[in-house]
Design the sequence.
């Protein structure tokens, strides 16, 4: 089919000064970071670094791009962010690829020729729009399977293409290999491949082009900026999560202006002001297992400790490239509705407003800080930014030992890992243990924050990516 042009859209990001990191890094690390960033800007003069993905908000990739691009821009690198245009049918196909890459087939089948045709048709239309924007010599970082099919045309156009996968599994099965086979023909010409961890590297790409860059969080974004207890409570009240009257629920926007939480979350009933809470923040996705969290809490936490569960995620219609959210939300609500009322009333399912992503981030920030225990009971996880976010906030975490979570949490030192993600009893007893032993919980949280400072903050990532891009130009 002839490629008519798609409506790719640009996500605007202002600059974030790298000086924010000066005191957090200490003298030596700061001077290494600042020097690397200055050198990067000089090398990239005259070229644009384009990031291309499939959603401007919702999920870890959007979070990462929104955090990192502003720092490169602030040192003078012309880095930009484009979001491809896809039909619901295209996103059904790419969601299926995503699930297959995690070893699960949503409909029991492999990818069909019709699904390949849908995939290629949409990306063909996007290519037509992208080649008008990109110049030969520019660099494009294409994120995830949604963009793999863009590699051949952009490479032929003279663009240096880095394809980055944010997903993967430790033990590939036939479904995973089938998805690799589907994607590999598009990828062979890429200049470099980036994976989040070594275990995720496919059989296909030759070693010299493979790079490992672990994701990171930005300590100063609206999602992670420091927030005192009073502000936390005000933000949770203003969003309707905590009972009580509204006060001044303010936060600091990335551009330095004051923001205010005005929109309310869509939820059943608010938490009592002094509730002890267990929190999971995630998109409504089967692999995040919100139904399993609900059952684990009902069966193995609620009978032992007086606490609440909060499952928070974005408004279901807000994440463009994820068509399954409504269905998963329905499922978890059903699980909750079936419970005895005494337990049910202690489970709060909240859809957080997404009209203003910084307002959403401020609510997530407050919720994570207010949590007595943060859980991430994923069945599979590329990296799991929510884990790093909670650890940075000094929260004790109980998470499945899957994917990138294992790189972040050292079991019983900076959090608790559950070996089998389906083990509801083990999950529940770990949560109960922390709720009953606040001192141990605090010690885990303190160590967790230090670990994030050492390994998972933006400067490390910015330097690694700068080095890779520099090596290509
Ligand atoms: N997130 C958010 N608002 C929500 C739910 C999630 O901002 O209502 C964010 C969350 O804080 C994290 C990202 O979305 O920064 C999810 O990234 P993660 O790596 O945990 O999972 P992914 O969605 O990429 O699978």
Sequence:
């Amino acid at each position: 089919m002839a490629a008519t042009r798609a409506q790719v859209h640009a996500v605007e990001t202002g600059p974030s000064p790298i000086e924010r990191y000066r005191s957090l890094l200490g003298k030596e690390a700061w001077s290494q970071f600042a020097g690397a960033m200055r050198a990067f800007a000089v090398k990239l003069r005259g070229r644009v670094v384009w990031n291309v993905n499939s959603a401007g908000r919702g999920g870890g990739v959007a979070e990462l791009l929104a955090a990192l691009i502003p720092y490169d821009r602030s040192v003078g690198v012309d880095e930009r962010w484009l979001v491809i245009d896809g039909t619901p049918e295209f996103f059904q196909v790419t969601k299926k690829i995503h699930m297959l890459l995690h070893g699960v087939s949503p409909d029991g089948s492999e990818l069909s020729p019709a699904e390949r045709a849908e995939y290629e048709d949409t990306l063909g239309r996007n290519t037509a729009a992208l080649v008008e924007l990109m110049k030969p010599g520019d660099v494009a970082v294409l994120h995830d399977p949604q963009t793999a099919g863009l590699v051949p045309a952009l490479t032929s156009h003279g663009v240096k293409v880095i394809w980055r996968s944010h997903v993967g599994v430790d033990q590939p099965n036939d479904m995973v290999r089938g998805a690799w086979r589907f994607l590999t023909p598009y990828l062979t010409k890429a200049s470099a491949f980036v994976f989040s961890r070594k275990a995720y590297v496919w059989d296909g790409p030759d070693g010299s082009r493979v790079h490992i860059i672990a994701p990171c969080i930005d300590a100063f974004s609206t999602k992670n900026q420091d927030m005192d207890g009073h502000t936390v409570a005000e933000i949770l009240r203003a969003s309707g999560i905590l009972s009580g009257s509204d006060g001044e629920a303010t936060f600091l926007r990335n551009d330095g202006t004051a923001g205010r939480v005005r929109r309310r979350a869509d939820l059943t009933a608010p938490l009592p002001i002094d509730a002890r809470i267990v929190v999971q923040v995630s998109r409504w996705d089967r692999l995040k297992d919100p139904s399993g969290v609900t059952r684990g809490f009902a069966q193995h936490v609620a009978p032992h400790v007086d606490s609440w569960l909060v499952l928070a995620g974005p408004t279901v219609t807000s994440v463009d490239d994820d068509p399954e959210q409504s269905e998963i939300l329905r499922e978890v609500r059903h699980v909750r509705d079936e419970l005895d009322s005494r337990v049910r009333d202690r489970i709060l399912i909240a859809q957080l407003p997404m009209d203003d992503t910084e307002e959403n981030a401020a609510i997530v920030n407050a919720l994570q800080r207010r949590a007595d225990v943060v859980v991430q009971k994923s069945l599979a996880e590329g990296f799991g930014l929510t884990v790093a976010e909670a650890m940075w906030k000094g929260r004790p975490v109980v998470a499945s030992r899957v994917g990138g979570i294992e790189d972040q949490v050292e079991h019983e030192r900076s959090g608790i890992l559950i070996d089998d993600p389906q083990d509801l009893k083990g999950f529940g007893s770990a949560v109960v243990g922390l709720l009953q032993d606040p001192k141990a919980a605090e010690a885990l949280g303190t160590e967790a924050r230090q670990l994030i400072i050492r390994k998972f903050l933006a400067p490390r990532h910015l330097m690694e990516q700068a080095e890779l891009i520099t090596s290509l130009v």
